[in-house]
Amino acid sequence: MVLFIASVKPNISNKRNVEETVEVVKKLKNDNTLILISPHHFLLNFAYYYDIEIFKNYNTKNIYENINNDFKASNILE
User: Fold this and answer.
1) Which of 28, 30, 25, 36 is nearest to 68 (CA)?
2) Is the distance from CB of 46 to CB of 22 less than 8 angstroms?
3) On the chain, which terminus has fewer CB atoms closer than 10 Å, C or N?
4) Buried-exposed string 47-72: b where 16+ CB fall within 10 A, e elsewhere
5) What dihedral angle (degrees, nearest 10) is formed by the CA atoms of 34, 40, 42, 48?
6) pTM of the prediction?
7) Which pLDDT belongs to residue 15?
8) CB count in 10 Å sphere of residue 43
9) DSSP letters for 13-77
């Protein structure tokens, strides 16, 4: 048990550094950039950090559809 407690690392990255990823996307994006988001459920994470207003501006019935429609104008596709 002591060995387990001494070796456990609870803050291991799950390689989903969304905030940092979105900052890089924002820096590299221009008018000709097409951004593809995958998998489907990652759209909510991306929307939260990319544009909080788009994230807030949804209803629970069609959440993915509403966010997709808002993002399509910016060449961000799922």
Assistant:
1) 36
2) yes
3) N
4) bbbbbeebbeebeeeeeeebbbebbe
5) 70
6) 0.72
7) 62
8) 21
9) --S--HHHHHHHHHHH--TT--EE--STTHHHHHHHHH-HHHHHS--SSSHHHHHHHHHHTTTEE
